[in-house]
Amino acid sequence: MIFRDARRDDVPTVVHLLAADALGATRETTEGPLPDGYYQAFEAIERDPNNRLVVVEDGGAVIGCLQLTYIPGLTYQGGLRMIVEGVRVAESHRGAGIGRRMLTWAIEEARARGCRLVQLTTNKARTDAKRFYESLGFTASHEGMKLDLT
User: Fold this and answer.
1) pLDDT band at residue 113 using 50, 70 and 90 as cut-offs
2) pTM for this one?
3) Which CATH number fits domain 2-135: 3.40.630.30, 3.10.20.740, 3.30.930.10, 1.10.620.20?
4) Secondary structure class of 35 (helix, strand, coil)
């Protein structure tokens, strides 16, 4: 498996990965040409040194993705934190330990960059994902809240 920064031509595959579950299917558009917003978001991520959209390749095919965002802050004595978002593994590759390798890799990237904390959120409906993250040492220490502005 190869971990690499996503390229513009990976955007359709990443969007399909994000849409390939019950929750993602309600948020993402995969029919026809992709809306420009996906490419604008990709370009913003690519320009920002505190953001990385990473894909995982196996045999030349993209089988997973995740976004890493680094946030400097005054908490933790000025410590840097990493937020992990959009973690997906292709349905054809689930159950093979790829998600575990992806998160282990992300945690090592956080350590290498000097982060004090790695955080993520998972939808409460994703009970399997919550168990998975807990098996990696994550704790549900906070109540996450969102405000949908659409």
Assistant:
1) very high
2) 0.93
3) 3.40.630.30
4) coil
